Amino acid sequence: MASPVARPWGGTGLLLGTGIFAAWLATLVLALLADPSGWTPVTLALVVALRTYLQTGLFILGHDAMHRTLVPGRSRLNDGLGRLALLLYAGLPYGRCRRHHLRHHRVPGSRRDPDFRRASGDGALRWYARFMGNYLSLGQLVLLLASWLAVGGGLMLLEPGRALAVPTFWVLPLVLSSFQLFLFGTYLPHRGEGCTASGRHAVRTLGYPHLLSLLACYHFGYHREHHAQPTVPWFRLPELRQRLSDRHLPGHGHGDHQDDDQGGGPGLGPGDGSRTLRPGR
């Protein structure tokens, strides 16, 4: 039986990933070296928004690498780029993040889920604090602070006031990005106490139009689809959403478990007329 997204995506993920890496680095360097004194508030806000979006893109690349879909079929390159993406994002350790994320896919909404526990309730701030605490350590915070201070100190040698560019164009986008990922990738799709008839945790999809979904969080809001087929990369989620909609996928359910190495999450069961999707070579 053909899988919901049948065509292989080959090097598309690597190509898009390279673009995100390059854009993140280029905008960071340009923003740090620019003189924003003559910028209007709108220009400043747009630059911060762009930096935030690209910062989020780094985590999305790391996320796809966790599911071995950033560079399908080349696990060493895939994992290497995933490590780089998470290191640049916030000094995150790839191995630990991957273990946590695959556990989230295996047991969403349970006591063992590192991203969500029902004991947290629906309080967004408390949930956000717990979520960040599971991924950030004191060592990572020290690494980030040291990096920011080193770059800021270097900029001060060029011009005393230029160090303000570090919190404006590097620190602030990271903080905003963490809220973006939490809101569209965890809180909105997983909030509430809803369960399926089988007792599984109900995962929601945010039904945004294609462009809004892309701008919101790289289609991460198509979350039920992602849990159903975690081997589908971010840029193919709209197609998967459409295909599963055409097949009348049950609204909130999960099927059988998939191979842990490919995501460990609940997939579409045989009764849905589809098989576990694996990336094209």
Features:
281 residues, mainly alpha, 56% helix, globular, disordered C terminus
Unreliable parts = 195-199, 249-281
Give the overall shape: globular
Main sheet?
Answer: none
The chain-level mean pLDDT equals 80
Order of helices and strands, N to C? HHHHHHHHHH
Distance between the termini: 19 Å
Alpha-beta content class:
mainly alpha
Backbone CA Rg: 19 Å
Helix content: 55-70%
| Number of helical elements | 10
What does the model show?
The protein has 281 residues and is mostly helical. It has helices spanning 12-33, 41-66, 75-90, 94-106, 124-133, 138-158, 165-190, 210-217, 223-228, 237-246. The protein is globular.
Q: Can you give me a brief rundown of this structure?
A:
With 281 residues, this protein is mainly alpha-helical. The protein has ten helices and no strands.
What's the SSE blueprint?
Layout: H1 12-33, H2 41-66, H3 75-90, H4 94-106, H5 124-133, H6 138-158, H7 165-190, H8 210-217, H9 223-228, H10 237-246
